[in-house]
Design brief:
Number of strands: 11
Oligomer: single chain
Distance between the termini: 31 Å
GO cellular component, one term: mitochondrion
Protein name: Ubiquinone biosynthesis monooxygenase COQ6
Helix content: 25-40%
CATH architecture of the largest domain: 3-Layer(bba) Sandwich
InterPro entries: FAD/NAD-bd_sf, UbiH/COQ6_monooxygenase
Strand content: 25-35%
């Protein structure tokens, strides 16, 4: 595997090739344990899926194998006519991140709301703080339905060739190594075992 990585990095034509070609070459030539991943993410909600998409689209990580563990089953999703009351308010930084991974276009083509001015009051006094200005062209935040944001991230995740999604994978236990040369060990409730170099725990119920 190390020789394959060196070949890809040192060969101009391969280095200039698309990320999908690089991933295909590295995957097909790898003889490593298929249950070992460079990065594992426990929790496939909005945060976990967006993180997996962000890492998977990072060209510098295109030769890394990434595993996304989702405890729920894979479900088809279509935009409902009525708005869902489960929404999230995202700041401009998160909006930029979703733009960078091309996920915002799916939200922009459907529906969202912008917040120009935000005022917060203290619970025990008349003190308050105000963010933004109604006349400003800049937004304080964006209101997006949870399911729509998740669907947008999942749609872009399809274009990443180095991310594997495991649905119905409830983490039963994990073991952190005592020494840096050891791997993180992950066990699921259905008996499957995986290992990784780096573990992100997004949902605490997953461990």
């Amino acid at each position: 595997m190390a020789l394959v990585k060196l070949l890809v990095d040192k060969t101009p034509n391969l280095r200039a090739a698309s990320r999908k070609i690089r991933v295909y070459i590295l995957r097909e030539c790898s003889n490593e344990n298929r249950n070992h991943y460079d990065i594992a993410i426990a929790g496939g909600g909005m945060v976990g899926t967006t993180l997996a998409c962000t890492l998977g689209k990072n060209f510098k990580l295109s030769n890394k194998r990434i595993l996304l563990l989702e405890s729920g089953k894979k479900k088809p999703w279509t935009l409902p006519e009525k708005y869902n009351n489960r929404v999230v308010s995202i700041n401009p930084g998160t909006h930029k991140l979703l733009n960078d991974i091309n996920a915002w276009r799916h939200i922009n083509n459907n529906r969202f709301a912008t917040v120009k001015r935000l005022q917060v009051w203290d619970a025990v006094s008349d003190s308050s703080i105000t963010f933004g200005d109604e006349t400003s062209s800049e937004n304080v935040s964006y209101i997006v339905e949870n399911d729509l944001l998740l669907a947008a991230a999942n749609e872009e995740l399809k274009d990443t060739g180095n991310v594997d999604i495991l649905y119905g994978a409830k983490v039963k236990d994990y073991h952190l190594p005592e020494y840096h040369e050891k791997n993180v060990q992950i066990s699921t409730e259905d008996g499957r075992k995986y290992s990784c170099d780096l573990l992100f725990v997004i949902e605490i119920t997953q461990v």
